[in-house]
Amino acid sequence: MRAFIQEHYAKTTLAQRPVEQHLGTYGGLWMNTEGLTLRKVESSSERTVILVARDKLAGDEVRLQVDVEAKAPHGITGVKVQPVASDSGRPLTDEEVAKATQAYVEKLVAAEAFSGTVLIARGDKLVYQGAFGLASRGFQVPNRLDTKFNLGSMNKMFTAVAIAQLVEAGKLSFQDKVGKVLPDYPNKAVAGKVTVHQLLTHTSGLGNFFNARYDAADKSRLRETQDFLPLFVDEPLAFEPGARWSYSNSGFVVLGAIIEKVSGQSYFDYVREHIYKPAGMTHSDCYEIDRDPPNLAVGYTSQGPGGQQSDKREWNNLFLHVVRGGPPGGGYSTVGDLWRFSQALQANKLLGAKTTQLLTTGKVQPRPEHKDDKYAYGFEDAQVQGTRIIGHGGGFPGINSKLDIYLGKGYTVAVMSNYDPPSAGRVAQRIRTLLLR
């Protein structure tokens, strides 16, 4: 794809938008369609050709417009893909959004590309909810609206809220260094250089604990925040703190340790008492799955033993992830509880208005080619067609979840799946196209 773009795109276009950004466009197209089959050429002119194609995944028709420069060699200046709509692109009513969402998800289910739950709300009004697929294949238990799905990295939002609450209470500062809060932290470079702000924004230089030590570890022993520290605590910083952005699960483990030190509570008790309880999230927690908590969805993945890969999700993921999630991710929730979290956050029930704004406003730009996508404190902050969307996603073998909070429009979209990414992501993306027309 990179070679194709470099050869066939206009030089002026590549000067304005780098190759990586165009690659991202095609990557998103593949994620949502798994390829296109040409149906017909709708129109063709000197500088523009418009094609109608069929989405290989869901069978939907899409309109593909390719623009080229006027002079030879007529390099491509733009590619645009839109669903074929019979309503001339007018804004949809909530009822039409619900109907279109149901139809799309049913197509994914028929293609064995989605299993999980979907919720769309506008303020405190439910627009759509649905449950699909099986929570347990072995026992043939269907997913329900109250089925608890693994959040993946979405726990980072709760960790960030907890840190902000402690800052608001005067017990901590975003500019505090790790060593000030955790004087016994064994990695002196981290203790002396890295700030809470940098941990929250993935600019600390810490890496990920999903490493060789993690692969060799007894996952049943990874239950408390401190259990994860030996996986990475002696690793050198990958770069000078603040120099750049690099997603870090290890950094959020350190944030969990900070919460425990400052609050005097375990991470789990603190989040349960100060976030889940005031938000009314009665079906959310970092459950210990070997205690067999009720109503958890089993994750199904195409990733098998020894790195095997299959075209189908042949394995469950029970031996791939930890027995208990924590500050970086791995807890469980429901689409209903995520809606309640969205409402509580926006109503300033968890934090004051100024702190909520500070928490959710983008601080760094992870990918220079995506100028409208920023990362805040444990929240993603994106501008999409003039609408600001905050939230977070989560992904792991057999796990994919997404929460989108549409500020200004009042929508909350929660999608949870017990299939590999991008099972939930593509549903959330399709809902965006329906809500932002």
What this model shows, in words?
This protein folds into two domains: about 80 residues, no CATH class; about 350 residues, Beta-lactamase (3-Layer(aba) Sandwich), CATH 3.40.710.10. The strands form five sheets. The protein has a seven-stranded antiparallel sheet, with helices on both faces. Strands 1-2-3-4 form a four-stranded antiparallel sheet. With about 425 residues, it is an alpha+beta fold. The mean pLDDT is about 95. The protein has 15 helices and 17 strands. It is globular, with a radius of gyration of 23 Å. Strand 5 and strand 6 form a beta hairpin.
Structure summary:
With 437 residues, the chain is of the alpha+beta class. It has 15 helices and 17 strands.
Helical residue percent band:
25-40%
Principal-axes geometry comes out as globular
Oligomeric state of the chains in view: single chain
Query: Structural class from helices and strands?
Result: alpha+beta
Please give the alpha-carbon distance between the first and last residues.
29 Å
CA-atom Rg in angstroms: 23 Å
CATH superfamily of the largest domain: DD-peptidase/beta-lactamase superfamily
The total number of structural domains is 2
Biggest sheet statistics: 7 strands, antiparallel
Show unreliable segments.
Answer: none
